[in-house]
Specification:
Oligomer: single chain
Number of helices: 29
Bound molecules: 2-(butylsulfanyl)adenosine
Shape: globular
CATH topology of the largest domain: D-amino Acid Aminotransferase, Chain A, domain 1
Largest sheet: 7 strands, antiparallel
Number of strands: 24
Mean pLDDT: 83
Low-confidence stretches: 63-68, 232-280, 535-539
Length: 731
């Protein structure tokens, strides 16, 4: 028995190490495949020895299912906010206040300047080195318990290196890397979902999401910058080391006392001391180094400044250099490095006196809003955008900006002809912030959202709970154009050569009115098609026949007939169906016919398919013209069946030979549902606990069965653990 345990521990340690190399240092030592192999070995071992699964195992990042709302939790010490400085003068004034408060006269104060991460603040509690809680800032005193989501953030270690004893809190910022943000918005756009304004909103929205799997999928990340310890009574024998720690406190005397007491409260300070807390460290910079040693993600560009001049230089440098970072930063946080001095300076009701936030000059500009136009997307969404007099903002010329939606324009009363403030939010798509009312022309008129589609003139409609106006006409040329582009795109039917300009031609000439028409195109038609390549830089855009290119496109179209069903399901552009959902649905339901005929419940029984996706597939299948389109594709010889291996049939027998006992009330499942899940996988449900029982699933108010299980040493599972077992059986 000792062997698997050793291997488990070794694997976990290796995986943690590589997660840190990859997610925190951006410097992996092994390939993704090698990493996956380690993780897979760990998963298999844990499946074999479920008793040895620990909550901090790397396999447990996304355990369980969406949780019901968030519980409110109290912070050990208030999560304060920061005072702001907007220019050099205000920074100098801050320095002046600090020096005055410290009684230092003209002597320079040592600061640490850190990048201000543009995300949402988070408080992480570690107990004897293990992550036990994650909470949002909330109102500063009470926040939301978002532990399940925090556990799904891969940069946050579930257990710390050198496992320091005692309980303490680490504070930091959760953020969404720019690349993840852009990818996520591209996917949302492709699926006809509204895009997020900036990475901060996206991160905040994701953290509020009740499904931890979503957090993992969107690749949230985090940085930490502060250590806080909870209150308790110090026994006298530890007063000396407590004094040493006192100086480490982040914040005024209240927090300093928390630090002092905690070491003591933990009862065993040895680990904390061994981890570097025994020395008389008195600096914030040392504490950051210590957090990093424990394996926590500390943003690496922080700078020890010997006085305010260095701080000003740091702020100047990063006002520009921040563009190359992989995350958004909206300023610099300047903190007094000497923790004892911090203690002396203390806090006001809202802010610490020992820190301030320098805000980078906003990347804003004024320009004229020439016109408001409407763009038509693949799902028929008619989205207004602004055509601007070109203006330079943060190094690039802007001539268009997003206006979000009609409601937003109405609320801000943005009008054509207005001078408007535009902003590059996190260097993504520029947006119109507001009109400058004092510069509004006298004859200006309120802008009204058109009631007809910008492309085809059909009536626009809007769902009650949505802000987006959509064109309902399925053969709207703009929709068709976008839909065809999507249909042919690489991750859909992968028809090379069928790009924007060719699609335009085919529609204009009336050769293609739906996806099905693509399969009727002949080599002769395409070879002889005359295109004028749209090359903006060439003034010699000579019309020419497509020739060989056309022949290739026909070959590509022909080849796409054999595509797997998953590609077709995705290519159809059904709302809310991304690449992954399409693949799972195709793999589980096997044929197009089965998908179109599946009742909502059957669709929802497919892993990861929720009510929204299921309803969307149903709505698609219920439209007669969609059915006709599928029939046309089938008649053209397009493959309608999955070529992927069916979902592991073995998983269905995953519980065979296992006996479960259910006791108490489970939080979300009824007894019947739990029984069905077990029996579906070949397991048995029994009414009484014996030595032969494999697991007892325990809910609220469990009675003698739980006692009996404990007595006999039978493994007990919470509903969450039971669900994990089911998920593992399926993978
Ligand atoms: S220190 C006592 N350091 O900015 C205040 N905050 O505007 C401790 N933030 O609520 C905060 N990066 O959420 C600190 N390097 C950094 C930060 C940072 C981002 C956030 C934090 C805070 C907000 C204040």
């Amino acid at each position: 028995m000792s062997q698997p345990l050793e291997r488990l521990q070794e694997l976990r340690q290796q995986i943690r190490h590589h997660e840190e190399r990859y997610y925190i240092h951006n410097a992996p030592e092994i390939s993704d495949e090698e990493f996956d192999r380690l993780l897979h070995e760990l998963e298999q071992l844990e499946a074999e020895y479920p008793d040895l699964v620990t909550p901090d195992s790397p396999t447990q990042r996304v355990a369980g299912r969406p949780i019901e709302g968030f519980e409110t939790v109290e912070h050990v010490a208030p999560m304060l906010s920061l005072d702001n400085a907007y220019n050099d003068e205000e920074l100098l004034a801050f320095d002046e206040r600090v020096r005055k408060g410290a009684g230092l006269g003209d002597a320079p104060v040592a600061y640490v300047a850190e990048l201000k991460i543009d995300g949402l603040s988070i408080a992480l509690t570690y107990e004897n080195g293990r992550l036990v809680r994650g909470a949002t800032r909330g109102d500063g005193t009470r926040g939301e318990n978002v532990t399940a989501n925090v556990r799904a953030i891969k940069t946050i270690p579930l257990s710390l290196r050198d496992s320091p004893a005692g309980t303490f809190e680490v504070r930091g910022e959760v953020y969404l890397p720019r690349a993840s943000f852009e990818r996520m918005n591209r996917e949302r756009d492709a699926e006809g979902e509204p895009v997020f304004m900036n990475p901060r909103n996206a991160a905040a929205g994701t953290m509020r999401n009740l499904d931890p799997a979503m957090v993992a999928k969107r690749r949230l990340s985090a940085f930490v910058y502060q250590l806080v310890l909870p209150p308790n009574q110090p026994p006298p024998r530890l007063r000396r080391s407590a004094e040493a720690l006192r100086a480490k406190a982040e914040g005024g005397s209240h927090e300093a006392n928390l630090v002092k007491s905690n070491l003591v409260a933990s009862g065993s300070d040895s680990n904390l001391l061994a981890s570097g807390f025994s020395r008389k460290e008195t600096r914030h910079s040392d504490m950051l180094a210590q957090l990093a040693k424990w394996g926590l993600p500390v943003e690496r560009h922080y700078c020890k400044c010997s006085g305010i001049t260095d701080v000003l230089e740091f702020c100047r440098k990063w006002a520009d250099a921040r563009r190359d970072l992989e995350f958004d930063t909206d300023g610099v946080v300047i903190k007094v490095d000497d923790l004892a001095l911090r203690d002396r300076l203390g806090t006001t009701a809202k802010f610490p006196r020992w820190a301030t936030a320098f805000k980078f000059p906003a990347q804003q500009a004024h320009t004229k809003l020439l016109a408001i136009r409407v763009n038509v997307g693949r799902t028929g969404a008619n989205t207004p955008y602004a055509v601007l007099e070109p203006v330079l903002v943060a190094g690039s010329t802007i001539s268009m900006a997003t206006l979000h939606n009609a409601e937003d324009i109405e609320r801000k009363d943005i009008r054509e002809g207005d001078t408007v403030v535009i902003e590059k939010a996190g260097d993504v798509i520029p947006r119109v912030v507001a009109p400058v009312l004092s510069l509004r022309p006298e004859d200006s008129r309120k802008w009204e959202m058109p009631t007809e589609c910008a492309a085809c003139g059909s009536d626009l409609a809007r769902d009650e709970d949505e802000v987006v106006w959509r064109c309902e006409n399925t053969s709207c040329p703009a929709r068709l154009r976008r839909s065809l582009e999507h249909f042919a795109s690489r991750s859909a039917m992968n028809i090379e050569g069928l790009g924007e300009s060719l699609v335009d031609q085919l529609i204009e000439l009336g050769l293609v009115r739906d996806f099905g028409d693509l399969y009727a195109l002949t080599t002769a038609e395409l070879e002889n098609l005359v295109v004028t390549p749209r090359e903006p830089r060439s003034d010699r855009a000579v019309p020419r026949k497509l020739g060989k290119v056309g022949r290739n496109v026909v070959e590509q179209i022909d080849r796409s007939r054999k595509n797997d069903l998953s590609r077709l399901v995705y290519a159809l552009g059904i709302r809310h169906i991304g690449e992954k959902a399409a693949a799972t649905i195709a793999r589980h339901l096997r044929t197009m016919e089965a998908i179109l005929d599946a009742p909502i419940e059957r669709l929802q029984a497919v892993p990861d398919v929720g009510p929204v996706v299921a309803a969307s597939v149903r709505a698609f299948a219920d439209e007669t013209h969609n059915r006709a389109l599928i029939a046309k594709l089938a008649a053209a010889g397009v493959n309608m069946a999955s070529q992927q291996p069916p979902p592991d049939v073995a998983a269905l027998g995953a519980f065979s030979g296992k006996t479960f006992v259910l006791t108490g009330t489970l939080p979300t499942m009824t007894r019947e549902e739990a029984t069905a899940e077990i029996e579906r996988r070949g397991g048995k449900v029994s009414g009484s606990v014996s030595r032969k029982t494999s697991y007892v699933v325990v809910g609220a108010d469990a009675g003698t069965k739980l006692e009996k299980a404990r007595e006999l040493g039978v493994q007990t599972l919470t509903e969450e653990e039971f669900r994990t077992l089911i998920i593992k059986a399926a993978s």
